[in-house]
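Posting for a labmate who doesn't have an account.
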Amino acid sequence: MFSDTKCMTADRVMIQSPASNTVTTQSPESNPHQVEKVEDVCKAAISASLKDPGSAIFGKPFRGSFDVIEVGGVKTNARIIGVPVNAKNSYGGYVGEKVYACWISAEGDRFLKLGLSPH
């Protein structure tokens, strides 16, 4: 899962550029307002994927691990945000909380993709 990222800590990711052989350090928490906006985009994407978007009850998003994913054919450093959601199914009943995974840019300023958490 992390094979392409050279070094990671809890709050920073070290990124090595093969083309220039340079290393940069980025903090995904450098602008918490950007992260909150991206979390809102994650919630909107989750709602759009539900049978009853208006029924979504969101828990508190939590920061997860770092990952390297392909976006438009380019390997991109990403941070995973877990978003707990309880929503109604086709029968109108709440199904219980599921955790969706949102991949955001390592800088915390872009939504990259959405999926169900395997946990």
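Reply:
Got it, the structure tokens are right above this. DSSP finds one helix and eight strands in the chain.
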